[in-house]
Amino acid sequence: MITVATITMNEENAVGKVIADIRAVVPDAEILIVDSSKDRTPEIASALGATVVRQFPPRGYGLAMETALRSGRGSVVVTLDCDDTYPAEAIPVLAGMVEDGGFDLVDGSRLKSKPQAMPWLNYWANKGFAIIASVCFGRRLTDLHSGMRAYRKSMIDRLEFDASGPALPVELLLKPIELGFRVGAIFISYRERVGTSTMQPLASAWWTARRIFSCLFPR
Ligand SMILES: Nc1nc2c(ncn2[C@@H]2O[C@H](COP(=O)(O)OP(=O)(O)OP(=O)(O)O)[C@@H](O)[C@H]2O)c(=O)[nH]1
Ligand SMILES: [Mg+2]
Question: I need a labelling partner for 142 at 20 to 30 A (CA). Which of 57, 68, 111, 168 fits?
Fold first, then answer.
């Protein structure tokens, strides 16, 4: 079984479509939502048959993502943001590469070229950090910050990471590489967001640098 996990904070305008899109491609998957909303997001998600774990008051992206990754019951956990930016059609491709392709983690990279939906500043920051990490880790990495990936559950069970603070996806990609897990990537599309972003660019950049450094030189 696969789990499709997403975290939500006030995504009532997107959650219905995101769940419907997931169902259309993987009807038998467990759909797990870690929710920190004040709006109707959790009610909508429950009514559509998703498993909702409430985390309120909100504890931030990282702690919600850690709960999502650790609570999934499937042998593969596929993550995506609940803002309609990621393509649900990629779920079976990513999951299949873990289930049948022998990968422990497959990244959905948004950066084959600049997505129209990504502001130039974010694009250059993402690209710059990916180049730095590629040099540091000696392999081609194109997107450290993607929210869409497939993780082998048994790998997550063995992984320790610091879920406090922004830019957790950076550590969730680099630590498995450092530990010798089999990590792959495919290119995916990236759409315009429904609703408002919670991303804080400066804090995210600082934490990205910190996380690259701490994965490179683990204590
Ligand atoms: N449960 C929970 N979800 C959160 C929290 N912060 C953000 N989210 C969700 O995490 C996902 C990613 O957040 P976004 O605001 O889209 O951040 P982002 O994807 O880095 O930024 P954009 O590229 O602008 O979309 C969304 O589905 C949010 O609803 C939180 O504190 N708790
Ligand atoms: Mg987003």
Answer: 68
Rounded Cα–Cα distance for residues 136 and 131 (Å):
9
Distances (CA, A) of 137 to 16, 125, 207, 213: 39, 18, 18, 11
Condensed to tens digits (0 to 9), the pLDDT of residues 39-60 reads 999 999 999 999 999 999 999 9
User: Which ligand neighbours the alpha carbon of 203 most closely?
Assistant: 1
Closest CA to ligand 1's atom 31: 60
Of the candidates 149, 160, 159, 168, the one whose C-alpha atom is nearest the C-alpha of residue 207 is 168
Domain parsing of the chain, residue ranges: 2-216
Q: Give the side-chain half-sphere CA count within 13 A for 124.
A: 2
Helix (H) / strand (E) element for 31: namely strand 30-35
Q: Which atom of ligand 1 is nearest to the CA of 6?
A: 27
- CATH architecture of the domain with range 2-216: Alpha-Beta Complex (3.90)
Residues 83-122: tens digit of each pLDDT: 999 999 999 999 999 999 999 999 999 999 999 999 999 9
- Which amino acid, one-letter code, is at 209? A
Compute the distance from residue 149 Cα to the ligand 2 centre, in Å: 13
Give the atom of ligand 1 at the shortest distance from the alpha carbon of 145. 20
